[in-house]
Design a protein that fits this description.
By secondary structure, the chain is of the alpha/beta class. Helices cover 36% and strands 21% of the residues.
Length: 406
C-alpha cells in the first residue's frame, strides 16, 4: 500500500542530530526545542522504511506516562489515515503497513527491556532514567545493529547520562553529541526570546542553565573548582612550549601531549590513538630537548626508556612508585589552577577537568575521573605542570625567525 505522508518542517539543528552517520546520538537540549517530536518523526520514518515484517522499534521514557504522551502525539499525526495503521492503546503499540511495530515503553523496570531484537530506538529523558535501562536497551540492538538516539535535558554532572555524553564529546567511536539551547530554538522560531528572558528571571540560575542552556551544573565535588577552571580557559599560546607532560594510552585511552610556555599557558596540545612505534617516534619528534615528564606506570616504562635515549631532559613518573604520587600530582594541579599559574584549553581538556571529582575514603581524599570517563588530558596537564614546577627556567630573550625559536 502506497501512502504519502508529508514530513514535518525541521530546523537545521534537528536535521543535524536526526540524520548523521553515528550509531549512537546524544542530544542534551533545552526544554521546548523540538527534540521530542523530531525524534518521534525519525523513529516513525525509520520504521516505515523497514523491509522486515514484525521488526520492533522502541520509544522508551523513564516513566510510563511520558511514553503515553509520545504515543499520543504520534497517534494524532496518523489519525487521518483511518485503517492504515493498527493502534493498540492498551499495549501502546502502532503497527505500520509494512508490518513493523513501534512500541512505547517505560524504563522503570530495566529487566523488562531485555530479550527483544530492536532495529531502532529512542531513549527519551535519558538523564532522568537509570543506567541499567541503558544497559538493557543497548543489548536489544546488538543483534540488529540498530541505531539509538538518547535525548534529554542536562541534569548535573554525576549522572551516567552526563558521563556518556562526555565520552561522546571526547570522540568515542560511533557516537555523536549535540547541545541545543533555548536560544538555538528561538533563532529557529520555535520559542520566543521574551519567554526565555522571563524564565531567566523566574528560575534559579542553576535550574535556568540546565533547562534552557543545556549546561549541566556542578555537583560540588570537583577538586579544582569550576570557577577556577573556567577562569583559566585561554586559546593556545603562540609562545614555544618549554615544559611537557605526556600521558600514554592504556587499553582504549588516548595518548595526550601537553606543552606549557614559560608563563604556564598551554602552547602545545595533541591527542591521538596510535601504536607504540608511532607514539614513541611522535613524542621524540615533538619534545626534542625540552623538559618533559611522562607517566611511566605499567606499559610506560619501555616507552620512556626509548624516548630518553633520544631526548636528554625526559623523566618518567610511575604512579605506583610511592604512596599518593598521583594524588600529589593532582593537588599540585589544583593549586596552580587556583593561583592562575596555568591555562586550560576549551573542549575535551576543559570537559575532563570539570568532570573530575574527589571522594572521601578511609585513607583520605581521592582524586579521580568518574567511572567510564577518561582523564588523559588532566594527567598530561598535571604532568606538564609538575615539569614546570620542578624545572624553573630563567626567562631568556627569544627571537623568532621564520616561526623557529632561536
Amino acid at each position: 500500500m502506497d501512502i504519502e505522508i508529508t514530513p514535518p518542517k525541521l530546523t537545521d539543528y534537528q536535521r543535524a542530530f536526526l540524520y548523521n552517520d553515528a550509531r549512537f546520538t546524544i542530544v542534551e537540549a533545552a526544554t521546548k526545542c523540538g527534540k521530542t517530536f523530531s525524534h518521534l518523526w525519525w523513529l516513525f520514518e525509520l520504521a516505515m522504511q523497514s523491509d522486515k515484517r514484525g521488526a520492533n522499534y522502541w520509544w522508551v521514557a523513564p516513566v510510563f506516562n511520558q511514553s503515553e504522551i509520545a504515543f499520543g502525539r504520534l497517534r494524532r499525526v496518523i489519525a487521518q489515515y483511518n485503517g492504515v495503521f493498527k493502534v493498540n492503546i492498551s499495549k501502546l503499540t502502532i503497527t505500520l503497513p509494512n508490518g513493523a511495530v513501534i512500541h512505547f515503553k517505560s524504563a522503570e523496570k530495566p529487566d523488562n527491556l531485555f530479550g527483544e531484537d530492536v532495529y531502532g530506538c529512542v531513549f527519551d529523558e535519558f538523564t532522568r532514567a537509570r543506567e541499567d535501562a541503558f544497559f538493557a536497551l543497548r543489548s536489544t540492538i546488538t543483534a540488529t545493529g540498530g541505531k539509538m538516539k538518547l535525548i534529554g535535558n542536562a541534569k548535573g554532572k554525576k549522572n551516567w547520562g552526563y558521563k556518556l555524553g562526555a565520552r561522546a564529546r571526547a570522540g568515542e567511536p560511533n557516537y555523536a553529541y549535540f547541545r541545543i539551547t533555548a536560544y538555538d530554538a528561538a533563532n529557529a522560531g520555535l520559542i520566543s526570546l521574551e519567554e526565555i528572558e522571563q524564565a531567566k528571571r523566574d528560575l534559579p540560575e542553576r535550574v535556568f542553565k540546565e533547562l534552557y542552556l543545556a549546561e549541566p551544573q556542578e555537583d560540588a565535588s570537583n577538586p579544582f573548582g569550576m570557577d577556577h577552571i573556567r577562569g583559566q580557559v585561554k586559546p593556545l599560546s603562540s609562545l614555544p612550549a618549554e615544559y611537557f607532560g605526556i600521558d600514554l594510552a592504556k587499553r582504549k585511552d588516548w595518548t595526550v601531549i601537553v606543552g606549557l610556555d614559560v608563563n604556564g599557558d598551554v602552547a602545545y596540545f595533541e591527542r591521538f590513538q596510535k601504536n607504540w612505534e608511532y607514539t614513541t617516534d611522535r613524542i621524540i619528534d615533538v619534545i626534542k630537548k625540552a623538559k618533559c615528564t611522562i607517566d611511566s606506570t605499567g606499559v610506560g616504562d619501555p616507552i620512556v626508556e626509548r624516548v630518553q635515549a633520544k631526548c636528554p631532559n625526559v623523566e618518567g613518573l610511575n604512579y605506583a612508585s610511592g604512596t599518593g604520587t598521583k594524588q600529589k600530582l593532582m593537588e599540585g594541579l589544583a593549586v596552580s589552577l587556583q593561583r592562575g599559574e596555568i591555562s586550560v584549553l576549551s573542549g575535551i581538556m576543559q570537559d575532563e577537568l570539570e568532570a573530575f571529582e574527589f571522594q572521601y575514603t578511609m585513607s583520605g581524599v581521592k582524586y579521580s575521573a568518574p567511572e567510564g570517563f577518561t582523564d588523559d588530558c588532566v594527567n598530561a596537564l598535571a604532568l606538564a605542570n609538575r615539569t614546570k614546577q620542578f624545572n624553573p627556567i630563567v626567562k631568556r630573550h627569544r627571537s623568532l625567525v621564520g616561526g623557529v625559536s632561536r
